[in-house]
Write a structure and sequence with these properties.
Layout (H helix, E strand, L loop, with lengths): L3 E5 H5 L10 H10 L3 E5 L4 H7 L7 E5 L4 E4 L2 E5 L4 H12 L4 E7 L2 E4 L4 H10 L3 E3 L10 E8 L7 H5 L7 E4 L4 E5 L5 H11 L7 E5 L5 H4 L4 E5 L4 H6 L2 E3 L6 H10 L2
Parallel strand pairs: 1-2, 1-12, 2-3, 7-8, 12-13, 13-14
Antiparallel strand pairs: 3-4, 4-5, 6-7, 6-9, 9-11, 10-11
Length: 261
């Protein structure tokens, strides 16, 4: 019996216009009535997900910040935070990168020091709760991720520079302007396993959906792993099942078929 489901957002649950399936809230409510936990697994901030899923947020588990933070029923049930001494080291180094700004992605919001309008415009696309501070190293919050915003190309400038830390951190190029620091253990698959352990759920009682390389660990964490029809070939190979594309509401299709909803 499936007891928990995790779905990626972009390219998976959302269509190509970033829209949710019309049935999603009704499906989540029906799953909750059956005792099944529905989870969102994403790199986005918790508050951003909570805003999108406001009608069902009280029943929704959110695996956010690429797995560094998990919240359920407004409680933190898992956090893979960067320790203070390491945080200071990578922030101070990132400040020296020309043409860039640094963002502290915390358990309770995002924090920054910059007044740059281009940075602020791009930051607000992904973060709903944020605050300008004098020194992000002195913020009283746990750091899930440190993001470096490059006003030019992160691939050409910021990412190669922060890659000197790749033995100690998961260093990732996360967008044209963005590169991130996270703990080596921070990914959605690791977080999903921690959630299953906490709720005494076995891998063959869990389901997951994904489409891209950052979903590999998530799909490898459970028996009922589904790649979207639009997924990369590597994802289809790693998953145990393939469902319809995100444009055809493949997540909803697979859930309704499995649970006979």
């Amino acid at each position: 019996m499936i007891k928990i489901i995790a779905a990626d957002l972009d390219g998976t649950l959302l269509d190509n216009n970033h829209r949710l399936p019309k049935e999603i809230f009704d499906i989540i409510k029906k799953l909750t009535q059956k005792g099944v936990i529905f989870s969102i697994a994403t790199g986005r901030q918790y508050e951003s997900v909570a805003k999108t899923f406001e009608p069902v947020i009280d029943d929704l588990m959110v695996i956010c910040e690429n797995g560094a933070l998990v919240k359920y029923k407004n409680e933190i049930i898992h956090i893979d935070d960067i320790k203070k001494d390491k945080l200071k080291e990578i922030v101070e180094y990132s400040r020296t990168i020309e043409n860039s700004d640094v963002l502290f992605c915390g358990a309770n919001g995002a924090y920054f020091e910059s007044d740059d309008s281009w940075f602020l415009k791009n930051m607000k696309i992904y973060y709903s709760k944020y605050q300008k501070v004098d020194n992000i190293c002195e913020v009283d919050d746990k750091a899930c991720k440190i993001a470096v915003f490059d006003r030019g190309s992160a691939e050409k400038n910021a990412y190669p520079k922060i890659s000197i830390f790749k033995n100690d951190f998961a260093v990732a190029l996360s967008g044209f302007h963005w590169a991130d620091f996270m703990n080596l253990t921070a990914n959605t698959g690791h977080a999903y396993k921690k959630v299953m352990e906490k709720f005494n759920i076995l891998p063959d009682e869990a389901m997951a959906f994904g489409d891209y390389l950052n979903d590999l660990e998530l799909l490898s964490s459970c028996k009922y792993s589904y790649a979207m029809e639009n997924a990369l070939p590597e994802i289809k190979k790693a998953a145990n099942f393939v469902t319809k594309s995100n444009e055809e509401n493949g997540v909803i299709y697979a859930i309704k078929k499995h649970f006979d909803i």
